[in-house]
Amino acid sequence: MTVLTRAPSPATTPGSGAAPGRPPSRPRRTNPLGALGGLLWLVVVLVPVYWVVVTSLRTREGFFDANPLAVPSDPTLDNYRQVLDNGFTHYLLNSLAVTAGATALTLAVSFLAAYAVVRGTSRALRWTFSVFLLGLAIPLQATIIPVYYLIAQANMYDTLTAIALPSAAFAIPLTVVILVNFLRDIPDELYESMRADGAGHWRMLWSLALPLSRPALITVTIYDALNVWNGFLFPLILTQSPDKRVLPLFVWSFQGEFTVNVPAVLAAVVLSTLPILALYVIGRRQLIGGMTAGFGK
Amino acid sequence: MALPALLLFALFALAPMVIVGYLSFTRWDGLGTPSWTGLDNWRTALTSDVTRHALWLTLKMMVISWAVQTPISLLLGVFVAGKQRYRALLAVFYFVPMLISTAAIAVIFKNLLDPNFGLGASLGLSLLDQDWLGDPDLAFYAVVFAIAWQFVPFHTLLYQAGARQIPASLYEAASLDGAGRLKQFWHITLPQLRYTVVTSSTLMTVGSLTYFDLVFVLTGGGPGYATRLLPLDMYITGFQSNDMGLASAISVVLVTAGLLLSLALVRFSGFSRMRSQQAGV
């Protein structure tokens, strides 16, 4: 899979019917080595996923007897029932609450900050932006001990807020950087004409910057929400009681308790992935479009 | 307007960096009050075989992960950037690991690689039938593989986006000059993707300082100390052995490594120049 090219397609040679003025189309030459490599990685990605799904439908006995990649002869949903009976819905709601809270907070404060950085001129704002740039490099693992200390001091230990606040804080740098880069591209003239109409900063922020940043906002919402949703370290360290668990912690503790019942453990994995998968299926276009708009180039 | 963001960030990220520096000079079990012990923790951390080994493993993981993930995601990304429909379809499937939480991925591989009833054992494939997580030499590479499985999709996406932006006219000109595929890849695709390579490499190297959840669930740092990377060493020292002072010293090493790395990458790569003109990280 080493040879990857982008030769002009034969269809665009003059006289072959390509409409004039159309952008030249992308390569259509076959690339067998690339295709082979691509298929190989497809196998690497999909075999574990397939294995998880079929195994989660097996009975415990079936798991030890059957060929692990065969379709189960007597598929059962018992494993899923067991996961649901173990408080799955509760943990799902916890995860939803933490993710929604943290993401909303991150977006609100980051958008304000990004607008200020782009539109403001003061030295303090430039300095603030540098702080966020530097913040991109702070591994959250390295600050977990003081964060634990602060949360304990603030009497927030073992609450969902304890997870949401630091999760939001650590999402801020990247969110601000992406939004700043996006807001910079809004032409000055648009602001000028709004100002001529007598609009103040808040008005411009609300009815100009906000609607125009939609693609960037979608990107960072998805990225931040995925990160908080999948976060493990903050929940592990900042909460303790079983009823404060979020889904990743649930999956982890469930596999600790049900080590001998692999199908049930994998059912927990599937169930914990389903909400995101559903979202992905619904919003795939926006998601991929947003990710590439935000991270590409 | 920038104040709320700055305050929140300062409270949970900047202040902790200062506090962790202070705590590294104290003895603290996580409950009582920290008591000042001067350089004790630092002496311990710098002479401890465990921590030095963890640091070494972290660097090794950084280099090997980069060397494994970069070629795969670069080639895949460039490949799926092509216009054929089946390539777009492939890209959809490649995305799947990004939807699974790290904890779940670790649980999946833990069972998949199990020596008794994992995939290799049950299928009787001798090549795969190894005690992946129980053998100190293999466990490290099992972790490398699981991490690649998780992160290659994201970097593929980066490269796909990057490759899409290379002007087709460059390739047309090159093929008129008779440049073959390999030449085009080497002289057009790679140079055009240099910023994407830098972005992706930055995220990978700084990211490898944060591999915690996966290793914690997959191997717990074992067997022995074979996969005890620095963040895990910090966690075990602080939250399992209740030696928060020593764990703080390890944290300081982590923060320093992260900052140095990104400063170096920004300085040597022209990353900062790119940042001002182009969107994205």
TrEMBL record, chain A:
SUPFAM superfamilies assigned: MetI-like (SSF161098)
Membrane topology: Multi-pass membrane protein
BP terms from Gene Ontology: transmembrane transport
Recorded family membership: Belongs to the binding-protein-dependent transport system permease family.
GO cellular component, one term: plasma membrane
Domain ABC transmembrane type-1: 92-283
Identification of the protein by name: Carbohydrate ABC transporter permease
CDD domains: TM_PBP2
Superkingdom of this protein's organism: Bacteria
Keyword entries, A-Z: Cell membrane, Membrane, Transmembrane, Transmembrane helix, Transport
Signal peptide start-end: none
Protein location: Cell membrane
Compositional bias segments (type: Low complexity): 7-20
Record region (Disordered): 1-29
